[in-house]
Amino acid sequence: MKKRSLLGLTATISVFFIWAGYSVHARELKHDVTAAKQLEIIRKNLSSLTEMKSADAKKYYNEALNDLNTLIGKYDGTEEALEAKFFMGAAHNEMHNFDEAIKCFDTVLSQGDVNQNFKARTLYFKAKALLAKGDVATAKEVVSELRLIEPRAADAFGSELSGTLRIGAEAPTFNVTDVDGKPIDLSKYKGNVIIINFWATWCDPCIQEFPNVKQMYTKFKGKGVQFIGVSLDDDIEDLRGFVKQFEVEWPQIFDAKRWQGSIPSLYHIRAIPTMVLLDRENKVRYIGGDTENVTRIVTTLLSESKDMPLFR
What we know:
The chain has helices spanning about 10-20, 35-50, 55-75, 80-95, 100-110, 115-130, 135-150, 150-155, 160, 205-220, 235-245, 260-265, 290-305, and strands at about 175, 185, 195-200, 225-230, 250-255, 275-280, 285-290. It is an alpha/beta fold and about 300 residues long. Strand 3, helix 10 and strand 4 form a beta-alpha-beta unit. Helix 4 (about 80-95) packs parallel to helix 6. The longest helix has 21 residues, at about 55-75.
């Protein structure tokens, strides 16, 4: 079975790496020919990475980020330095580093008087990053600003902003059976911190991240944290083989429908790996793929109450 990365932004980012142009044109910034040539080389390298597997491309994205940082430091105050900051944001998006991506885009937007086309590009990708981490309220504000410049680009967010799972909202409930035929009723786990991990064995980033997920499971095992895996696999035997080989102890839900599956649809999942973290009241506290963030938030949630967990 062919493996591939399913980051929802990849195809779009690829287009922007190819079509970047140098359209910053901020009145207070200067243009540097040497910086422009260096940036063009980095841009071409980045455009080729979107065709690679995520695990293979990570090293090169990090190298590109280092090159972009060097360019920014050397040519500070130029249009090319600002364009380089945008590319850093796009690269961070590809690596699921959404918080870092947003910081880069905010730096670009704080510049002020830049070309409207370049501003629209930056707003578009900032909105994408915000949605990927589940911050729908801020994403709506960004899309509203984008609509003033480029209405067609803003219209592309129509379906993503309607019905999207929101931080702070109560999680949609479900009652299904796992691959072993055991019942999984989300409401029964209320009182525990819950981590729902959307993934698949054909997803390279999921496999790459799996050791961190398992380490997190081991850290919180028996401490009132319930892990639930939701597999987007096509073949149940692929899932069962992986679970057996890597001794996965938490329950796995599977219905062979990928994105159209009942729970991925219920939670509006558009990219994997994605973890949805619920607090003891079944409210959404985090959406994303960063295990370090999940670990930090779970630790905080567990310290909020000394009550004994319902499930141990």
